[in-house]
Design brief:
By secondary structure, the protein is an alpha/beta fold. Helices cover 27% and strands 34% of the residues. Helix 1 packs across helix 3.
C-alpha cells in the first residue's frame, strides 16, 4: 500500500500594527507602524475518510484562518504594541488615551514576535497537523522567518 503523502499548505494574513522599541539606538525607538504580512505553513496528511466533508484536505483553509485570526490578527491588528519594561507612566498615559495597547513580556521585534506567534499557533492546531513555517514581513524588504526543523 502506498504511504500517504505529507502535504504542506500555506495561508497568508495581513494586519496593521504600531510599536516602539525600548532602548533602541535608531528611529524605531519612536512609535511607528507597519503593514505586516504573515505566511503560515502547516503540514499533515490529506483526509481519506470518504464520509468526512473535508475529504482530500490537510485542513480546511477556513479553519486555519479562524485559528490565526483568533490567536494573532484579532489581537495585534491596529494595536500599539510595547515591551512591559517601558516606563509605567508612559504606558498609563497611552492606555488613558487609546483603546488598543498591547503590553508584551518581550521587545516587540519581528524576530521575537514570530517566536510568540509560533507558540500561539502550535497550541491551537488540531491533532495530526504541525506548524512547519512562518514568515512575518514587517516592510516590503524586511522579514523574519521561523522553521519548525530549526526550533
Amino acid at each position: 500500500m502506498k504511504k500517504p503523502a505529507l502535504i504542506r499548505i500555506t495561508k497568508e494574513f495581513k494586519f496593521e500594527m504600531a510599536h516602539a522599541l525600548k532602548g533602541y539606538d535608531g528611529p524605531c525607538r519612536n512609535i511607528h507602524g507597519h503593514s505586516y504580512e504573515l505566511k503560515v505553513t502547516i503540514a499533515g496528511h490529506p483526509i481519506t475518510d470518504e464520509n468526512n466533508p473535508k475529504l482530500g484536505m490537510v485542513m480546511d483553509f477556513g479553519d486555519l484562518k479562524k485559528i490565526i485570526r483568533k490567536t494573532i490578527v484579532d489581537e495585534f491588528d491596529h494595536a500599539l504594541v510595547l515591551y512591559n519594561k517601558m516606563p509605567e507612566k508612559l504606558v498609563t498615559e497611552l492606555k488613558g488615551n487609546f483603546e488598543r495597547i498591547l503590553i508584551l513580556d518581550y521587545q516587540p521585534t519581528s524576530e521575537l514576535m514570530i517566536v510568540d506567534f509560533a507558540d500561539r499557533i502550535k497550541a491551537e492546531l488540531p491533532k495530526g497537523i504541525s506548524l512547519k513555517y512562518l514568515l512575518l514581513r514587517e516592510t516590503v524588504t524586511s522579514y523574519a522567518e521561523w522553521f519548525a526543523e530549526e526550533n
